[in-house]
Amino acid sequence: MSKDKKGGLKRRDFLKIIGVATGTAAVASSCSPPVEQIIPYVIPPEGIIPGVPNYYASTCRECPAGCGVIVKNREGRAIKIEGNPESPINSGSSCAMGQAALQGLYNPDRVRSPLSNIDAEKLRPLGWADAEKALTQKIEELRGTGKTGNIVFLSNNITGSLGNLVDQWMEALGGKHIQYETYAHEPLKEANKISFGIEKIPTYHIEKTDYLLSFGADFIETWLSPVEYTKQFSQMHGVKDKSVGRFVHVEPRASLTASNADEWISVKPGTEAILALGIANEIVKSGNSPNGGGGLRGLLSQYPADKASEITDVPQEVISQIAKEFSSRKRSLAIGGGVSVTGTNATETLVAINILNYVAGNIGDTVDFGDTLSISTADSFQDITSLVSSMENGDIDILFVYDVNPVFTLPKQLNFKEALGKVPFVVSFSSFMDETTELANLVLPNNTTIESWGDYSPRESVHALIQPVMSPVFNTKSTGDVILSVSGQVEELNGKFTQTTFYDYLQDSWKEKWAGASGAGDFDTFWKQSLEKGGYYKDLPSKTVSVSPAVASLKFSEAEFIGEGDFYFIAYPSYKYYDGKGANKPWLQELPEAITTGVWSSWVEVHPDTAKKLGVELGDFLSLESPQGVIETQVYVYQGIRPDTLSVMIGQGHTSYGRYAKDRGVNPIDILPLATDTKSGGFAWLSTKVSAAKINKSEQFVQTQYTTTQHDRDIAQAISLTELEKGIHHEEHHEADFYPPREYDRYRWGMAIDLQKCVGCGSCVTACYAENNIAFVGKEMVAKRRDMAWIRIERYFEESNNNAGFQTRFLPMLCQQCGNAPCEPVCPVYATYHNPEGLNGMVYNRCVGTRYCANNCTYKVRKFNWFTYKWPEPLDWQLNPDVSVRSKGVMEKCTFCVQRINHSKDLAKDEGRDVSDGEFKVACEQACPAEAIVFGNLEDKESKVSKQSHDDRGYNVLAEINTQPGITYLKKVTQDKA
Amino acid sequence: MSDKQGVLGIFSYVDVTIETVKKLKDAGFNNLRVFSPVPNHEIEEVMDEPESIVRFFTLGGAMLGAACGVGFTVLMSTDWPISVSAKPIVSLPPFMVIIFELTILMGALATLLGLLINSRLRRNAPITMYDTRFSEDKFGVMITCEKENVKDAEEILTSQGAEDIKFDGV
Amino acid sequence: MKKGIKILSVPLLAIFILLGFYFYNAESSDQGPKQPIPFSHKIHAGDDQIPCEYCHSFVDVSPNPGIPSVKKCMGCHQHIVGRDVDYDFDGTTINIKNEIAKVREYWANKEPIPWIKVNSQPGYLHFTHKRHIQRGFECAQCHGDVASMDQVYPAYNMNMGFCISCHTENAKDQEELTHLKDCLTCHY
Amino acid sequence: MSEQNTLTYARVNDDIIRMLDKPTFKWWALFLPTLLFVGFGLFCFIYQVYTGLGVAGYRHPVFWGVYITDFVFWVGIAHSGTLISAILFLFRANFRMSIYRIAEGMTVFAVLTAGLFPIIHLGRPWNFYWLFPYPNQRELWVNFKSPLLWDVFAVSTYLTVSSVFFFIGLIPDIAAVRDRVKEVPRKIMYSVLSLGWKGSNWEWLHYTRAYLFFAAFATPLVLSVHSVVSWDFAMSNLPGWHTTIFAPYFVAGAIFSGLGMVITLTVPIRKIFHLEDYITLDNYDGMAKLIMLTSGIVGYAYGIEFFMAWYSGVPAEWYQFYYRATGEYALFYWIMVVCNVVIPLPLWFKRVRRNILALFIISIFINIGMWFERFNIIVISLSRGFDPAAWGIYTPSWVEIGITVGSFAWFFMFFLIFLKTLPSVSIAEMKEILPVPKKEAKT
Of A188, A309, D28, D294, which has fewest CB within 10 angstroms of its CB? Predict the structure, then answer.
């Protein structure tokens, strides 16, 4: 692929290769069309029809969960990522990070070709042949000197074929493969080893429980498998037969997960073990334990409720109440994990949680050790520390870095960056110029998952396939291919691998799986089926475990903290950026963080009392100082955090990693000390106390919602459990209208949104950006409230009589497709109108931009194009050709993915039938992990949406304006009783 | 027209002008025209012209405007019926505004037309039979008569103390 | 002087009215764009009677009709080299053999032929060939008598009025008319 | 009255036509800066069209701001012209005679200014003509249910009718100027514009009749136009906009602001051109009384809005007014109240009403106050809608300020040209209120 002078990619070249029929993403206003070229294929690829999308199953590798995805391809370009309904992990849903993987693929700051600084000061582009030759030479040089063991391949937890290949390669070279995960959950493994003798991380079945007690496990955000657990949680917590599951979350701060809990228990950081034991003791004491506490009575009796209460800051009656609820519910489950319990006593805490489960008789089917997570196989933090010391000692000659960014994700105190400087030859396989790659000597950019073959096994039962959905955007090459190619060139390795491409290697390794799978037919069928389904899924029997008696003699302590400051410091992983990986994707940067609604930056959460004491307000800057350093960041005053705790999100503060990530916010990992969990040796995230001081700097806190309460508007409504059980009496009252009601023929498209299920994760928002070509506008524009999101998650803090004193409510707000839409009659040119199928149509090209519709919109869901927003190439390749790209001066808004409606109607028409219920999903509905959104035809009385719309909990937002919305919200359930 | 001639007498005072008109009328001169810098009821009375028909223009224009308003709104709305906010395609309350405005507009324009047509404005620019002092402070009486009667007219004008007497050049 | 204005105003008004009509009802010119190869639809579709769907093969399954790949061109031109004769292509004289040689050259270089689009619609309009063909419309109804054109040119000014008049005339019943005149059918 | 004794028909002509003498240095010193600012406003507009509406301070949810404020402000200014010429004509209020020409000129130029803003504020101003029902190949018409379309009709009708009305009134005066001027180009211009007016009884007969009908048409029109403008707001459902009081409230406010502007304009003109004998203290006294009345109506509206918001029991409505008086924009709210209700209070004293300087100062405050009234209604209401999640604060940008300044310059540019080209006091009608010259009276 040739490049023009600026190093940019020539569009023509791309078209030549993939052969697009026509592809200008035309803009809603154009006078005379410019000369358009149509570039035909030279040889038409099979199965591609221009104008008709193709879908390929693959696997998301944005986080270790390994959700199955389906990538939509139009004319050779990946344009949308959707969850794979076949995948047992996410069953069709996706998260914001997964949606945004496309912006990794099309990131304008990707490494566009191999780079090397072997003969130069700076990294300079070179061809693949030269790059591979350079690597071959280095390897041969090294082997010539006989120092064979000094090669290390540092990667994330890559299971499956690539992992095997790397293992084999390293073995052949005499090197070592270290798998580093930022959040490796070592304490969880260790705790399970201590409690059950299994050093594994199990899978959980939250959906089977009716009472969930979580100690810091942020399963809606990043913990283990967020999409899966959010889905399970919504099944457990959603309304079934007028009852709901109960969820109690224990954490020093009210994270997004805690915000979805019925009770958030604010606990003193590092004391969760004591709390868990205190609860267990109460259960045993009150005789509610089915096993009477087993052999642990003695241990537990050391933690009476009063003592536990004193240590943990949790009132005694709360402890006994939780104990009562936990043991009396049919199926309860306690889970633990996440950074806020990962202190120096993390393993002990998690053992204590296991004990709690044990005494309540929960160790059984809700915790499944038959199917364990592959993240269990990641190497330990100690391996990393010893690697760093070897590097420092000059014992490492070649370091390969694959899909990890240790310079960013490891604490500064470890001196990884300095150690890296002592490694003579660093090879990065990263496709992005991140902090580690910047320091590499040779960059061999890997294809993204969307461009390459591969597989990944997130857990024992799932072997997911990764297949290329499009040809590489840039001059990149799959690392598997590079390894095989280089191996072919290194003399001594000749013949080690029979395959020349990674695709062959992959197929060969899948032949083993095929052999293991019974009754799968011939390999080609097995292979094709696996590709279609996105992988090969097994059913594994669950394994019964028993608590080892050694637990009884364990000592349980509080976490230790380094530093003299007044505040415990929590650096928490972000569901938008994970460990910082997502920060280069504008969709994620622009996705408002659920609690603060902040975008494009970092902030520190400060309790109102603390803020008063420190003399700071929203937007002021605080300097946080730990023994390891200082960070300065903006204040967000939040009642959902303990007064003695401060917290900063991980993910921002990049010094490199592209234009969207660079110089934005702070990286809290920088000031974390190098502390470890005493039992497991894993990194202790919660280990420092910081001092905070106001500094003389203040800026607008850029967020998308400046209010915290509803101002008596009753927008996000709730119903108490008592009322729900009693049943709501619906008054049928028809108010006299000036005009007769509207009638529909075949379809009236409508939606139902269950607020009890919605967790506020923002997947829908990002999915909408991806589907509808919504422009991201950047921090400066969001600061002016010019974000373009068609769907927003409204977040309200409501006063409540729960322990926290407040309840967080989330409400996805999008165009309500009103029957009596206030926007329609005010448009002078009919640019917005009511279509015969109940949609509130928006004709972009007719819009003259009076903006009256937006003024008159009760829900304020219309967005105006203040400028013609641009997607830096090749981000614009992602644009959906089925949706107009709007230009300046035009109003835009949600139209229920009308392109999908039209597409389905078109397909139905081919077969001469009507569109059936559930035949297609709109983008937000499709993404929603909680399945809170249901879309369909209201005229069809049997459709799911019709039924939900007539639910007892159903209401219309601001119904008193008589807009007759097409969206029905189902009230959240407040649990006034346990 | 060659046998007709115009005579113009110029006066400073309204009462004198009116007196002159009366005298001229008594003498059988009926084709009279009075010039004045301001409208004056007494002159209007003595000239006894028929009521202005501008009002019919106004009425006609207003009615046409209202009809146009109804026509525009109803026909254009039904030509491509687009439903907004569950309102009927033809809903009169909002249309009333348009109908009203068009009534006023066309009424006013018709009045202008009526004025232009009826007062013969633009018919002919000032000729000899006009004196620029009319727009300042003088009054004039113009008699159009047969050539043989010019002398009589002049006599009456002189007797009334006309400050100036002009004849057109024909 | 006033007379002059009057005299002038008449032709001026006439010109304005004529211009208005011109822009209101402008027929497109019969001058198509200059293509990299002077491909004659008259020879292919007219003389040789190749059906449209042979080359534009996705027309009934996709919104896009599809432009034939170079391979498809070569399917015939592997064998048809063309006579060494001059041909009057819309007034320019071309040599058939030479022009066909160009196709073979593209094929040899594995280069696509950069055709210029003749009938183009703006991006805010979502037209689908599939529906229209399945409904039984002839290509010529919108594209004109392509079989008689050397260089294809837009036979009709395919503006919204063109679409809407046809939609209005061809609706079977009220429901379909409502659908066919629904903005969201084409604009989204 | 004493001064009328000194005025004669001839002197009226002399005095008024003298105003049209060659422009002095002072005139140029005023006129050239207006051109400069119009140019700057034009530059701002072009910049805005080229870059996008985002260069203005607009943001979600405040989609209307300074431009619509300017629009309503100028439409409001435009009102008193027709009020003074038409309504006071029907009521035979003689104090209108000396000022109605200036007021009408102001009306026409203010509508010309106001008419720009709906186009300036469009997202795609190059498509503004889509707002008119013209036959087109798309077979699409306009939405007559939209208050904006009512605006299109109301404002263009108003511009047409007020221009015609203005022109009709001018015909006899232009004839007078025609008869006076000597230079050939001007003579031709005035000859053409006078339509050959001769002042014959026949002409006067139709003229007076037509004038009456115009006045009769202009009166409901002027009331309807600002009602329609107010319905732009009242027809929507936004708290702070959706109220039935708006039409009379806006009409009163328009008359109020228009009279303020008339005073602001006439005071310097009267001084510079020595028109003390024409625009008399009695005239000002009459206007001041009208200001007192409309100020009272406007003040009442301010009060009753709060009452209705409270009485309605709608939290969004009540919060809106609570916020107006206490929120981020409270300063603007209180500027409005002070300028429009408090500062005009001294007019209850006759001494103040007859003090030109005091009137001038009060009138300027009224102009400021009324601009902010529109700003408050538009911006504050929008910034606090139904959904608290979508609240936001708007601040104008330099582009909006530039265009606003440009609009004032645009208005004054026309006005200055008007002063030097057309009689700013009605010659014919001034004569109507003078005693008719009669020989009997002399002797």
Answer: D28
